[in-house]
Specification:
Strand content: 15-25%
Distance between the termini: 24 Å
Structural class: alpha/beta
Strand order of the largest sheet: 3-2-1-4-5-7-6
Radius of gyration: 17 Å
Length: 248
């Protein structure tokens, strides 16, 4: 049994290394820049599409604020996986301080460029090793009001990695903090089932969760769902969450 657990641990570490290697290619690979939502690259040559991407998430954020009574009380945000900054630019008018956590230094640099272009100065990029997502805990020097993570959980190197990140997001949140997290949900098809190897080949649909499964995992981490938005065309589920007491 111990040998099997050790092998699983090593495999999880190997997959995280593969994920880190893949996303660091955003420095010079056009297709990874497209997947990371870089303005002007691939699908995002359409400036309206790029702007709309972030604005949709702002609208969900505003819905979450209304549901939790946090309207006009959100001053700081931490985005896990900001990519090329589509969300960051859309949220810039709504917050004073922005933390970005990413395994790709190039993504953080590009996000900073986009924030600078709209005059946002209080930007705090945090590069983490893909194998050590907990590194971000030492880089955030205050509880944050809001955490955001979209189009990222589906690329994580396994479900357990996502559970780790849920715990981290809960730790960085203020006591009355809120969160918006999007996953790709498992619809029962072979395409969307969780993968166990060949990260680069399967990166688009590597990790998925059943809708009720992620609801429970978030609750156990201390992030209590207050609403759920489904986008069936893409099998996306957006969880609107409020920090509370986790359940064992």
């Amino acid at each position: 049994m111990q040998s099997g657990v050790s092998e699983m641990h090593c495999r999880a570490e190997d997959l995280a290394v593969e994920a880190g290697q893949y996303w660091r290619q955003s420095a010079n690979r056009a297709w990874v820049q497209d997947m990371s939502h870089w303005r002007g690259r691939g699908r995002w040559a359409d400036q309206r599409a790029w702007a709309t991407l972030g604005q949709r998430h702002v609208e969900m954020f505003q819905q979450l604020c209304a549901l939790t009574g946090k309207t006009n009380k959100v001053r700081s945000i931490l985005e896990w996986g900001p990519g090329g900054g589509a969300n960051a630019v859309a949220f810039a008018p709504h917050v004073r301080r922005f933390y970005g956590v990413d395994i790709s230094p190039a993504n953080l640099e590009e996000c900073g460029i986009q924030l600078e272009s709209v005059g946002f100065a209080d930007w705090h990029p945090i590069t983490i090793d893909a194998n050590q997502p907990e590194q971000c805990l030492t880089a955030v020097d205050e509880p944050v009001d809001f955490v955001l993570c979209t189009a990222v959980f589906q690329h994580f190197p396994g479900k357990e990695y996502g559970i780790r990140v849920l715990g981290i997001l809960n730790q960085v949140l203020a006591a009355d903090g809120i969160a918006l997290i999007q996953i790709r949900y498992d619809d029962g098809s072979d395409v969307l089932r969780c993968k166990t190897g060949d990260y680069e080949k399967n990166v688009v649909t590597f990790t998925s969760y059943h809708i009720e499964e992620f609801w429970q995992l978030a609750s156990q981490a201390g992030l209590n769902p207050v609403s759920l938005v489904l986008k069936p065309d893409d099998c996306y589920a957006f969880y609107l969450l409020k920090k509370g007491v986790g359940r064992e």
